[in-house]
Amino acid sequence: MSSTPLMPLHRSSPRLATHTAPTGALHALDRRVFPGPSGARHPACIPPSMSTSLAGKVAVITGSSRSIGAAIAKHMASQGAKVVVNYVNGADAASSVVSAIKTSGGTAVAAQADVSTIAGGQRLVDESVKAFGGIDILVLNPGIMDSKVLADVEAFFDAHFATNVKGPLLAKAAASVLPAPGGRIIFFSTSLTGASTVSPTALVYTATKGAVEQLSRILAKGTTVNTVSPGPVDTPFFRQGKPEALIAAIAKSAPSGRLGEVDDIAPVVSFLASPAAQWVNGQNVSVNGGFV
């Protein structure tokens, strides 16, 4: 059997020669691609289409005077967005969120509107356009959940669907002013819609959120529309009507061993509103720490 001498790969293989860059070039690449001591990446490595900045954008967040909505408003403002803080009754709470944003160097206004009605949704759109000249991002955050046994559902069925489903239809009113392409609509659902077991007392709430998920899929044409489905998040909304023992058991059942926090949710919503998420459309994004 004849033997063929091995080729000197470091010189004669054109495929591998591309990996033998001079040390100086590798160091330059290192500085451009990997974070330095400050943790910052070289600006040249992040094209505008992949930026998570919201500079120059106008974001309208419904129900943003407290809890998850307030956290989203503050986070989007920190990323450069001009924010409309919507509320129904909590004027003082909304003013507090606006003040916090302004203190941090951001731009925000408060706008009262009941988005459980189509007229209220249109009013919010009109006020937002009046304040900032347009809308780029619409986050449909508010929801209500009243746990009742099946025999009592009729009493609060309409209220749940008015707030949780009709409210998100204000996206239709906003569609005429959202830029296409580039506009963002973000709905809110719940991880309960994908859970293997759901309490009968959550029947109506879960049904409304299933409707919201379908809305987002249908509307994801021409405008980027996604849904965020949080798991158990430690808010007054979540704690309402639950004994401490149940809350502790829910937290223990999560892989992380804790409930979510509002600041676990806000950055994901900001990402979906950013140019970096331009190829994420019609999706339901679970933000639940692995909770099933």
Automatic annotation (TrEMBL):
SUPFAM superfamilies, sorted: NAD(P)-binding Rossmann-fold domains (SSF51735)
Ion transport as a keyword?
no
Keyword annotations? NADP, Oxidoreductase
Q: Which Gene3D superfamilies match?
A: NAD(P)-binding Rossmann-like Domain
As one GO molecular function, the record gives: oxidoreductase activity, acting on CH-OH group of donors
One Pfam family matching this protein: adh_short_C2
Q: InterPro entries from the entry?
A: NAD(P)-bd_dom_sf, Sc_DH/Rdtase_CS, SDR_fam
Indicate the family of this protein.
Answer: Belongs to the short-chain dehydrogenases/reductases (SDR) family.
This protein is called NAD(P)-binding protein
Organism field: Mycena sanguinolenta
